[in-house]
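Forgive a beginner's question, but would it be possible to get a protein, spelled out as residues, together with the matching structure tokens, please?
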Amino acid sequence: MKLEIKSEVVPRSKAQRFKDGGRLHRNVRIFLVAEDEADLDKIVSAEYELHPTFRERHRRSLDRFRNFEIRIWSYGYFKTKAVVRFEDGSTTTVQGFVRW
């Protein structure tokens, strides 16, 4: 089973600055894709580990309908990984890069 972490700007979202003179942030969705879409049905959850600058660095998704998506506000690119849990209790770690 081949899994990847993908990311993209949330459609129709607007960039924002959270501080005067701060960096422009984008609303980004991070999600899993599989070579065979049916493989996603075997997944129970994905726990993403974000860059150390995030206050809530570990985020979990149980949302199969949205390919185990999480959404964040980000101003830059960074490496990430996800621990993926399967129905049979096994896990795998997927590494990727958040970019938009």
